[in-house]
Design a protein that fits this description.
Length: 628
């Protein structure tokens, strides 16, 4: 480690009372406002200026950025980290680590956690903000120990929430426990922007009475309260606050950096940061943000309703994007109403990844299916099994019964049940896994990472387009979509008049007829179609030039036809032709809305035909497997 890195990993004396700033522009700000889509090249436009500011740290990695890099941006997240480390030599780099979940959505074995932390520290992370979604400290033990071994700064988190089972006194006791585990700093992670000014003052005051290490407050401006809460928290003894440069701030992001710097200027809490330099950065970010217009959402502004729904900022923008992909954005408010009900059923977990994703996706499925818990994700099932840890409160008996039947939940540390994973991955001897970092990416996101590695080897890595769909429409006046435009959207000319057609959704087939919902020049129309064939097009098709490549699968009509309840991507097939299965056995797994959904055998019998493979995109009403 260089001398500069060693210095960056020292905790500076904070007895001067000055407020320290962590800026989130390179991570949480764009995760919260533009669905985690900022590319590394655009970040590098900012690094020269950012490195001059004198931030306590810059958040640059972790959270959803790892997934987004591989899945959407077609960037290697490890290369992003190394690149940013080189471009920001004078600034602490910080990441968000989900404890035993790392940067994924399930618990990983201890060997994966240990190696991930050590490689992250080697490649540039100085501060690890470590949290567990349920505040189950058993789930951060290994990550904390690994950070200390790497001689980096361990920032242990308390996930703040309000519920009948959470109190400020309980959070203060947790802070004491985290100090005893080796925490260098304590972070209050107010991911949904729930802290009111008085609550912030009371909470920080109670924690300050218990601990004497720096206290770092993270909040989102979702309810419009965060900047006021920051002021009261600093007065009560907090040392560091999270902000976002103004052109990527507010709403579901953090309060503006410049505003907080100005608010403390001339007081004993003065940050000492240069407002004119920050203004220059804000101007650059303002121009960069314009590139990502297609990922902006009407749901990322200030909305005090979040005080009731308790949805974190990053979750809102991603949930809106996922509902849009399901052609169900109009159901956003119904999902907002369902989320608190599901959260109560699950024993009031704080809504932060991955618990926010588990609760949010289950709530979405409850709304889309028209029946609560008709479809249950693998993660919901695992939550009730205890594989995420101990729920904060009592869970709902009906929901638990629907999820796991008569099975007893576990009571041990969930990772104690996991076998080491890295040796098994190494024995695969797959030449696409070229480095230990590749192995770690594969361990966390096997399907997404392998797709990335295959495209990397073939030289076909291409990030998703930044263009708005209307910018991609062909202008030839025919019904052929332009390259890279979804086949569900096109222009068509009839008798000299051109119409913009978009397929907004489809209903279930009844008596051989199926309704389709079409937007014709933004006006929604319902069209009833009668099938003349027994095949349906799969969304696995892609546009290549002006040609449409599609695969076809038979429409589900027999009792033994296996279908998926929601559109998604196949991530595992559990059976082979000739296998005997029992009704209810898991036969494949589909990823939808970043959650795994098990698909079960509808009858007992023999697998006669399999019409999908791992990586295929699938739709409801398609027959994926035939069982007789």
């Amino acid at each position: 480690m260089t001398e500069t890195r060693t210095e960056l990993r020292k905790l500076n004396d904070m007895s001067d009372g000055r407020t320290r700033i962590m800026d989130t522009v390179l991570r949480d700000s764009h995760q919260s406002l533009i669905a985690t889509r900022m590319r590394t090249a655009d970040m590098l436009e900012l690094t020269d200026l950012l490195d001059k500011v004198g931030y306590w740290s810059l958040e640059v990695w972790g959270g959803a950025t790892f997934d987004a890099c591989l899945r959407f941006l077609k960037e290697d997240p490890w290369e992003r980290l190394k690149t940013l480390r080189k471009a920001l030599p004078n600034t602490r780099l910080q990441m968000l680590l989900r404890g035993q979940n790392l940067v994924g959505y399930r618990h990983y074995s201890d060997d994966v956690v240990e190696k991930f932390v050590s490689r992250s520290a080697k490649h540039g992370i100085d501060v690890f903000r470590i949290f567990d979604a349920l505040n189950d400290t058993r789930n951060i033990e290994v990550a904390m120990r690994s950070v200390k071994e790497a001689k980096a700064i361990a920032e242990a988190c308390i996930c703040y929430t309000t519920s009948p089972v959470h109190t400020h006194e309980g959070f203060a006791e947790m802070a004491t426990k985290l100090v005893n585990m080796g925490a260098d700093t304590i972070c209050i992670k107010d991911m949904a922007g729930l802290l009111t000014p008085d609550a912030a003052h009371d909470l920080i005051g109670k924690i300050r009475e218990k601990v004497d290490i720096p206290i770092h407050l993270h909040s989102h401006d979702s309810s419009g309260l965060a900047s006021m809460s920051y002021m009261k928290a600093i007065e009560a003894g907090a040392n560091i606050i999270d902000t976002g440069i103004s052109s990527m701030a507010s709403g579901t992001s953090q309060p503006p950096t410049e505003s907080m710097v100005a608010a403390f200027k001339g007081t004993k809490y003065d940050t000492g940061l240069d407002l004119s330099l920050l203004a220059d950065i804000a101007e650059k970010v303002r121009e960069i943000r314009k590139k990502y217009k297609r990922f902006e959402s009407e749901f990322t502004g200030i909305n005090p309703r979040t005080l009731v729904v308790q949805i974190p900022g990053g979750m809102i923008s991603n949930l809106a994007n996922q509902l849009k992909e399901q052609n169900a954005l109009d159901k956003m408010n119904e999902v907002f109403d369902e989320i608190p009900r599901v959260r109560k059923d699950m024993g009031y977990p704080p809504l932060v990844t991955p618990s926010s994703q588990v609760v949010g996706t289950q709530a979405t499925l409850n709304v889309l299916m028209g029946e609560r818990y008709k479809v249950i994700t693998s993660e919901t099932r695992n939550y009730f099994k205890g594989l995420y840890g101990k729920p904060p409160g009592e869970v709902n008996d009906y929901a638990m019964k629907k999820a796991i039947g008569d099975e007893e939940p576990i009571t041990c540390r969930p990772a104690d049940l996991l076998e080491p994973e890295l040796d098994k991955i190494a024995r695969k001897n797959d030449d696409k896994l070229k480095t230990i970092e590749d192995m770690l990416s594969y361990a966390i996101f096997p399907v997404v990472a392998m797709e990335f590695f295959e495209q990397r080897e073939a030289g076909t890595l291409e990030p998703e387009s930044l263009e708005m769909p209307e910018d991609l429409l062909g202008s030839s006046g025919n019904a052929s979509p332009a390259p890279h435009l979804s086949p569900s959207e096109f222009n068509v000319t009839v008798h000299g008049e051109t119409f913009h057609i978009k397929v907004a959704g489809a209903g279930h087939q009844v008596d051989g007829k199926r309704p389709f919902f079409l937007k014709v020049d933004d006006r929604l129309e319902e069209v009833m179609l009668e099938s003349l064939t027994e095949v349906v097009p799969s969304t696995a098709g892609e546009i290549e030039g002006d040609s449409m490549a599609r695969s076809f699968r038979p429409r589900a009509k027999q009792e033994g036809d296996v279908t998926t309840p929601v559109p998604g991507k196949v991530i595992s097939v559990k059976v082979a032709v000739g296998d005997k299965v029992e009704e209810g056995d898991t036969v494949l797994t589909v990823e939808a809305m970043k959650m795994e959904n098990e698909v079960h055998a509808p009858i007992s019998g023999e697998v006669k035909k399999i019409m999908i493979k791992v990586g295929d995109s699938v739709n409801p009403d398609e027959t994926l497997i035939e069982i007789e």
